[in-house]
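Extended Data, panel c. Modelled sequence:
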Amino acid sequence: IVRPKLIGELKNGKSVALVCDAGMPSICDPGYKLIRDSIGAGIYVTVAPGASAGLSGLVLSGLPTDRFLFMGYLPAKSHQRRNTLQEISNVSASLIFYESPERLTNSLKDMVFVLGDRPAAVLRELTKLHEEVRRGSLKELLDHYAQGAKRRGEFVVVVGPAPEIDFISDTEISKFLSERLKIMSVRDAVFEVAQITKQSRKKIYMMAINLQT
């Protein structure tokens, strides 16, 4: 209802400014639909760069900024989140996510499970009065927020790039796997070690069985 009215005003020669009090308009924001419809109607559209929570979070995270992948909001259900994270688990770039207070802890849990314990940062209420930045490993951040730390406002989560692994011996893999099996189920340990070492799950599973016999 609103968009057609605004398009009509623009066609009558008036100007419309799309502004936002929380980050940059149209980034993970329905404002993009107005831009899309305006372009489709042949109306001139321009942008005056404003605050972007994603890019601000990347800079403040202290993680590499030369390559990054903006993912927006992850799916609401855990298995869908894990599938999405799996798809980007080997990307050699910093990963930027938006997250709500209600889903933050569960999302961090899935990130630890799929991506491993990478360096990361959780940033809250960026560019606002109560801005907060917390840096650490994904596991440290999960522990912090799982213990009831403040979870009000909008969050940005930035995760470091996938580690570069040139070569890792079976002996090193076996030692790493043995440590993970002390605190995780076989399934979870195999999944994590296979992701981190870039080895097949079948190979890691057989190593896990041998370690337990």
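The first strand starts at residue 68 and ends at 73. This feature is highlighted in the accompanying rendering.
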